[in-house]
Specification:
The protein is of the alpha/beta class and 350 residues long. Helices cover 42% and strands 17% of the residues. It contains 14 helices and 10 strands.
């Protein structure tokens, strides 16, 4: 064979072997590149509106308590003025996991035809016995003493059709009053509520923490009713994502939600409260004193320690939304829930 190496057939043979080697080397390089690419952590773009009510950006702020951060996933918190714009971001592919009020979730599925949207975890719940429920406030010197006294008045919510807005509508309907016929609703952002009330531009405002604990608001205003009076227990915020994102990234998202629940346990542990408040104050750029009286206590919203949403409450909330005319039909929330990620997290953390 060596003697024939210069023959046409021998030369061709050597040429074939040479090409095989080049092919193998090329395949090895491609495989290595694929391994490096696969090793890149998944970037999870997670939406939030008000922190620390919504804990998503806070939970991933203290990476020292996380096991998988930077290895299989990283988080990019994305801030929104309300939950409704998060629906648009989900639709355009600019957001991966949204923090949606029950009202926004229902609108996304039925009005926005986003049938592949899934509830994946609890954000927080309003009106759970022994915990905070949203405040609806009037001025202390206001002549408004009862719900009926709101007839002919102007009330402020942070968004028409939102959860705070529906808390007003549901309770006033129970007292025989309807929007436009008996009272007027205007929209305002939470940071503007106190000034609008103090300046008498509106007669009632609906607020949430930390704005509800603003000492200036507490000095000038009093509670007329709470969200639970109109809606009962409310699955106020859930984490939601589309099935395509969930299925394509299931392995990394198992790690994401394991760390989500792990961090939640840490923040809810009273022994960590001082450090937790320091982290929250740093993230929100607010003084620690704002959070000292309520955050991570019974005076705060209820957060399920294992991030399990209250689907029974969620269903009742959606039914009220339909009754108020904000949904075109019935929505079965259990058909739009995927709790496999938090269930896997619970198993891992046992």
């Amino acid at each position: 064979m060596i003697a024939l190496c210069d023959s046409h057939s021998g030369g061709r043979r050597i040429c074939i072997v040479g090409r095989a080697i080049v092919t193998l080397v090329g395949a090895a390089v491609a495989l290595s590149a694929a391994v490096v690419l696969a090793a890149e952590p998944l970037k999870v773009r997670a939406g939030w509106v008000v922190a620390p009510a919504t804990m998503t950006p806070i939970l991933f702020a203290n990476t020292s308590i996380l096991k998988h951060y930077g290895v299989t996933y990283v988080v990019e918190p994305v801030h929104f003025g309300s939950t409704s714009p998060e629906i648009t971001a989900l639709a355009t592919g600019d957001l991966d996991i949204a923090s949606l009020a029950f009202s926004s979730f229902g609108a996304a599925v039925l009005n926005g035809h986003m049938g592949d949207l899934r509830v994946v975890a609890d954000g927080f719940q309003d009106g759970v016995e022994g915990h905070y429920s949203g405040d609806y406030l009037v001025l202390k010197e206001s002549p408004i003493k009862t719900i009926e006294d709101l007839k002919g008045k102007t009330v402020a919510s942070n968004g028409i059709g939102g959860a705070t807005d529906m808390g007003i509508r549901a309770l006033l309907r129970q007292h025989g009053m309807e929007d436009k016929r008996d009272y007027t609703v205007v929209e305002a952002q939470f940071p503007s509520m106190r000034a609008m009330l103090d300046e008498r531009k509106v007669d009632l405002v609906g607020v949430v923490p930390p704005f509800a604990y603003d000492p200036r608001l507490r000095t000038s205003a009093r509670v007329l009713f709470r969200m639970k009076d109109g809606l009962g227990t409310t699955q106020m915020i859930v984490l939601a994502a589309r099935t395509g994102f969930l299925e394509q990234n299931r392995v990394a998202l198992y790690d994401f939600f394991e760390d989500f629940v792990r961090a939640l346990h840490w923040y809810l542990d009273p022994t960590h409260r001082e450090e937790a408040i320091r982290i929250v104050a740093g993230f929100t750029k607010q003084p620690k004193e704002i959070f000292a009286d309520y955050l991570f206590t019974d005076a705060d919203y209820y957060r399920d320690p294992n991030a399990r949403p209250n689907l029974d409450a969620f269903q009742r909330n959606l039914d009220v939304q339909q009754q108020l005319g904000f949904l075109p039909g019935h929505l079965d929330v259990r058909a739009h829930a995927d709790l496999s990620f938090i269930e896997e997290a619970a198993k891992r953390l046992e």
